[in-house]
Write a structure and sequence with these properties.
185 residues, alpha/beta, Rossmann fold, 6-stranded parallel sheet, 16% strand, binds adenosine-5'-triphosphate, binds magnesium ion
Length: 185
């Protein structure tokens, strides 16, 4: 059987928002990373508020080789019970991540960029709306941009091309089942 590989007549970068309270936003973005690598595209992933807790994608993307440039920043989820760091420190981390985004984006190297949990970072005031809109303004026309996290800002949704809201129907944590490797982290 012959395999068809479609080529769009016009290639253009898309802005994708993955939000909602259900499970599957970050992992959906990682699914698109996997696809993009299949197309030999260069990918940059920057995670917010996640530098303190190991998740499988940190090493998983290494198996994809040099096509993926991966950074996990921050010190955990700001405001969650037990997180010892003050808001100012979380904000400083997120502001540093913005600089990293600027640097990576202006390098022109990437065809896909994932900003994981940036929607939460905005909701929690670790970054400002104009800073996120500035990223959208500066996005190279051909670069796809994915923004994940709960509580996506209406203006960001307004500005994007594709948005999905992942709705929780059930979640294992409600049955007191601990997070499981491969599924939850
Ligand atoms: P995933 O990373 O699995 O794709 P997600 O990005 O859609 O999930 P987040 O809100 O970023 O969801 O949650 C990150 C992790 O925390 C996931 O592993 C998810 O299963 C787990 N999780 C989500 N909601 C809760 C909750 N209320 N309590 C505990 N763990 C949760
Ligand atoms: Mg997530």
């Amino acid at each position: 059987m012959e395999i068809t590989k479609l080529e769009p007549e016009k290639k253009q970068g898309l802005v994708v928002v993955l939000t909602g309270n259900g499970k599957g936003k970050t992992t959906s973005s990682m699914g698109m990373v996997l696809r993009a690598v299949g197309h030999n595209m260069r990918v940059c992933v920057i995670q917010f508020m996640k530098g303190d807790l190991y998740s499988g994608e940190w090493d998983g993307v290494k198996l994809l080789g040099d096509l993926v440039d991966f950074s996990s920043t921050g010190k955990g989820f700001c405001g969650i019970q037990g997180n010892p760091y003050p808001h100012s420190e979380h904000r400083k981390n997120a502001q540093d991540a913005l600089q990293l985004i600027d640097q990576k984006m202006s390098s022109g190297r990437f065809e896909l960029m994932v900003l994981d949990e940036i929607n939460n970072a905005l909701e929690l005031k670790l970054v400002d709306l104009d800073q996120v809109l500035n990223i959208l303004d500066k996005r190279p026309e051909q670069m796809h941009l994915i923004l994940t996290g709960r509580d996506a800002h209406p203006e960001v949704i307004e500005r994007c091309d594709t948005a999905s809201r992942v709705e929780e129907i059930k979640h294992a944590y409600r049955k007191d089942i601990e997070p499981q490797p491969g599924i939850d982290y």
